[in-house]
Specification:
Blueprint lengths: L5 H23 L10 H5 L9 H37 L15 H6 L35 H5 L9 H6 L6 H14 L7
Helix pairs in contact: 1-3
Organism: Paenibacillus haidiansis
Keywords: Metal-binding, Zinc, Zinc-finger
InterPro entries: DnaK_N (IPR037187), YteA (IPR014240), Znf_DskA_TraR (IPR000962)
């Protein structure tokens, strides 16, 4: 027997049906630029050769993003259909698929297609995922980068003039031109 009342079950069923209708409307609209359609057809161009490569790259990115969104929405539609089946079967809906505990009505109202309690949600550990490369990267030597981090953004302090002075100032070109003039005078006629 379910821990949810008939009114709650009816409300959740309506939420599932409404979300299913919205997702089916998305897929029925047939967003242009699906995988089966060529890039030429989606852009309306006769040839892509005259386009800048970045324009083509942008178009490819947009298509891949749309495909990822459709894939995500397709998975959600599958989850909704499974939830509607569990609801039709009776006791399976509203219970965690892992531990069998009752899923609170508030959680079902927020995510009516869920089959898991908060403790057993599959995506829950996704934030803790670290790339495998981090297991083989050696840490930097002790102290490297500490000064750079400590002094980050502090160029305008009292020693800034001494640092910039080494590169010269507005009077420096005159000194440099005197030196260049001396070198120029040492050239033989016609070598300039």
């Amino acid at each position: 027997m379910s821990h949810l009342t008939q009114t709650q079950l009816q409300h959740l069923k309506e939420l599932l049906r409404q979300e299913k209708r919205e997702l089916e409307a998305h897929f029925d609209a047939g967003a242009p630029g699906g995988d089966e359609e060529s890039l030429r057809n989606t852009t309306g161009e006769l040839s892509l050769y005259d386009n800048h490569p970045a324009d083509v790259g942008t178009e490819v990115f947009e298509r891949e993003r749309d495909m990822a969104v459709d894939d995500n929405l397709g998975q959600r539609l599958d989850e909704i259909n499974e939830a509607l089946e569990r609801l039709a079967n009776g006791d399976d809906y509203g219970r965690c698929a892992v531990c069998g505990a009752e899923i609170p009505f508030e959680r079902l109202k927020a995510v009516p297609y869920t089959a898991f309690c908060v403790e057993h949600t599959p995506e829950r550990d996704a934030a803790d995922y670290r790339p495998v490369e981090e297991q083989v990267i050696t840490p930097p030597p002790k102290g490297s980068g500490e000064r750079r981090q400590r002094d980050a953004g502090r160029f305008d302090d009292a020693n800034a003039w001494r640092t910039v002075e080494g590169y010269g100032n507005s009077d420096s070109p005159a000194t440099a031109s005197k030196r260049n003039a001396k070198n120029y005078d040492s050239l033989a006629p016609g070598e300039d």
